[in-house]
């Protein structure tokens, strides 16, 4: 260690103590020898303070994830641009109008059986919209629900 000029508390000692990284020790020693006697921050990217004014975020996904452009999680999009579908299912099903029903119980099967939606029976006794827990389709009973109750929503699972 003395020939390289490092103290016992240096990074090279910590790497040597870690037995899982022993194959990379020659590379680390060469890197430290190259910068021996120079400013320790040479070769490192300049740090920039990020605040609300200069932060640039990528496009927000349907789960609400949006990262700053300097975030390491964006490395997977280095060779190709991230494709985000702007059509979120919750917003699309909210645009579909509620289905009026005459009965107290309605069955929702999601349309096609190959889509994996089981047949669900939804109780429509309370006034308001009752949404299916699988597909989000809303139903209401015309005998119970008045105009002032159409903004009330229930979810049936």
TrEMBL record:
- State the InterPro entries in the record: Znf_CHCC
Lineage: superkingdom: Eukaryota
One Gene Ontology term, aspect cellular component: mitochondrion
Q: Which GO terms describe its biological process?
A: mitochondrial electron transport, NADH to ubiquinone
Zinc finger CHCC-type domain boundaries: 104-139
The record, for Pfam families, names: zf-CHCC
Q: What name does this protein carry?
A: Zf-CHCC domain-containing protein
Q: Taxonomy-wise, where does this protein's organism fall, top ranks first? A: Eukaryota, Metazoa, Ecdysozoa, Nematoda, Chromadorea
